[in-house]
Amino acid sequence: MPRTKKQHLVSVTLLKRWTKNARLRQVDLKTRKHSLAVPNKVAYSRDFSTPIQVQHTEEVWHEIESRAGVALKKISEGRQFDRVAVTDLIALHLVRSHDMIDACHNLFNSYEPITRLRNLSFEDLQRHALERTGLYIVGPEGALMEQQVVTEQIYKHFREDLSEHLPKLLAQVQGYFRSLNLEIMTCNSAGELVIGDTPAIPIDWTGTRTGLESGVWLRDAAAVFMPLTPTILASVGLAEGTTSLTSNAITRLNLMQCQRATRRVFCSPGSGLHRWILDEHKKVLDSLDNQGIGTEASQ
């Protein structure tokens, strides 16, 4: 079976807004290095959709991204724009994210039948090995290896099922977002926004929890934020219209992008924000180290 093609988790049409001379600056939170890059070479996954589903999902995503590209241009020019194109783009980035995969995986793992399958008895593992290979497992090491095989098969089926249902899930989120208000926030001269590789972020009503993986599902979210350009942010939720962001709000929003990023955060070349991103990331690493968790937890 052919390998799934490279799929962008952050749309190229979105990342282009952070470029200068066709390049943006990316910060790798794992290696703590930064570099200039072209948008179509970053923020992608090779295994997000299965080979069977990849063509269909790409067609759906391309239609949304094409409409959004026109809307983003009009927003930047201060003209009237297609609000549905923007809410659909936010929905796409929420569904097409490792945050969604991780949140669904957590729910999947908490399902009691799956919990039992991940903790089979020696006798069950023996039967599974016989059916699979015709051979008996021997001792604890053999049981552990067979349990790993079972767990890998479970996860493979989970990813295949989720990939198959992603277009339907996306359509549901699109419909829900279209029923909400859309607020456009501008930075003016108060600073610039960064964008992470998980840019659409739901936040709860207390303002303290963010992200699907943290349990902030859409019906419980006060809003879903996503930067559209270095100076424009969109929010799907209760508020409607336009407003200005303060420097404190920009800092908080940028921190959210860094905290929810899977690995990479992007900023405009020349903004100097890559240094701020690395400084904030170091504070997180130092905090984890002081708690005895270790730096590996952040990577």
A few lines on this structure:
The chain is built from 9 helices and 11 strands.
Could you list some keywords that capture this structure?
globular, 299 residues, four-stranded antiparallel β-sheet, five-stranded mixed β-sheet
Give a verbal description of the structure:
There is one protein chain. With 299 residues, the protein is of the alpha+beta class. It contains nine helices and eleven strands. The protein has helices at 12-15, 54-76, 83-95, 98-110, 112-117, 122-133, 139-178, 247-260, 273-290; strands at residues 7-8, 24-28, 33-37, 44-45, 181-186, 195-196, 201-204, 221-229, 232-237, 241-244, 264-267. The protein has a five-stranded mixed sheet, sandwiched between helices. A four-stranded antiparallel sheet has the order 3-2-11-6, covered by helices on one side. β2 and β3 (33-37) form a beta hairpin. α6 crosses α7. It starts with 6 loop residues before the first strand and ends in a 9-residue tail after the last helix.
